[in-house]
Specification:
The complex is a heterodimer of chains A (94) and B (254). By secondary structure, chain A is an alpha+beta fold. Helix content of chain A is 34%, strand content 33%. The chains are: A alpha+beta (94), B alpha/beta (254). The interface between A and B is medium-sized, with 20 and 23 residues.
């Protein structure tokens, strides 16, 4: 089932998340991150989306996946941070 | 003798051409074929640009854009949706390694915004940098800016609002909840200003462009020398216009 959230990162930008959540195994099957934030390089956000596919819908797990991708891809966010992104995703939960 | 940068005055163009020209300059400069470049331009017809990460369908009322003859385009820079009508748009393209450009991204936003603030001072307007990417006058936004870094090159573009038409802007943008549209319009009117509103008189594009030219020259201690796009940049721009910025796949990718 598809869920959405809109989350204003404290002192930051607006994040809009759309994701498909699979209730039986508590995983994300697809996530799309949109909003008016900045990321360098821009294309790397798609790698975060890919990294979150089949991730368990749980704060620590999501945060680890996001931080790991940021570190390996050398992504620099402005207006959003791993905590904000994790929170925006968690806000999708019904 | 001060360093010379290129100044481009490309006038009004479609949204697709404008974004294609910025990208073409970025590519040409990254290959060392053109000097650091500052460009001033406008949008004909008026257009909405959305940030790289925004969803086109969530941000823009496409039917309203078609009805009012307004173009729409996705930028290669992040940030939010902007209605480009009564404004001066600038872009600056310069190597990341240039000693005048801070390595830190936020610091480089501030440095480039300082050039615009100096330009506003020429017009008698006291603006201040408001992180992340705005310039404000008495707390109200008069300029929004967005930067990307690709191929070891910085491209920052942004607007100086000459006048604001919030009602038209909201007729073209989607709002999350129609019931609060009137409140949002009131809020934006309270938070946004323009050269016209601050000075109480209309100031033309050319006068603002001249002020901004001086602002860039003073901030960076360079001379902006009027030039034109190279034939290679024009060719690149036509390619980017066709293959990217006017393409459905690009604009609807999110």
């Amino acid at each position: 089932m598809r869920y959405h959230s809109i989350y204003k990162v404290p002192q930051g930008k607006l994040l809009k998340i759309s994701l498909i959540y699979n209730q039986p195994d508590r995983t994300i099957h697809q996530v799309r991150i949109t909003g008016d934030f900045f990321a360098y390089p821009e294309e790397a956000v798609e790698l975060i989306e890919q990294a979150l596919e089949y991730a368990i819908f749980e704060r620590d797990h999501l945060m680890t996946k996001i931080q790991s991708t940021i570190r390996t891809q050398k992504i620099q966010f402005i207006g959003v941070d791993p905590e904000g992104l994790t929170q925006a995703i968690l806000n999708c939960k019904p | 003798m001060s360093e010379q940068w290129r100044l481009l005055l490309t006038g009004g163009n479609t949204a697709f051409v404008n974004m294609a020209v910025d990208k073409a300059i970025l590519v040409a400069h990254s290959e060392g074929k053109v000097p650091p470049t500052v460009r001033f331009y406008s949008w004909v017809p008026p257009a909405i640009s959305i940030g790289y990460f925004q969803s086109l369908l969530e941000e823009i009322d496409i039917d309203a854009c078609k009805k009012f003859g307004v173009d729409y385009v996705r930028r290669i820079t992040g940030g939010g949706a902007v209605f480009h009508e009564k404004e001066l748009t600038y872009s600056i393209v310069i190597a990341e390694s240039h000693p005048l450009i801070p390595k830190n991204i936020l610091n480089s936003y501030e440095r480039i915004c300082n050039a615009l603030i100096r330009g506003l001072q020429q017009l008698g307007i006291h603006g201040t940098y408001a992180p992340i990417n705005d310039i404000v006058v008495d707390g109200k936004k008069i300029s929004g800016n967005a930067q990307t870094r690709k191929m070891n090159t910085v491209l920052q573009h942004g607007t100086i609002l000459l006048d604001v038409d919030v009602e038209t802007m909201f007729s073209l943008l989607k709002v999350p909840n129609e019931k609060i549209k009137d409140k949002m319009i009131t809020d934006v009117k309270r938070r946004v200003t323009s050269v016209h509103h601050v000075l109480g008189t209309h100031v033309g594009f050319d006068q603002v462009a001249a002020a901004m030219k001086q602002g860039f020259e003073e901030e960076f201690l360079v001379t902006l020398v009027k030039g034109s796009l190279t034939s290679e940049e024009k060719k690149l721009a036509r390619k980017f216009e066709k293959e990217c910025f006017s393409a459905f796949e690009w604009n609807h990718r999110r």
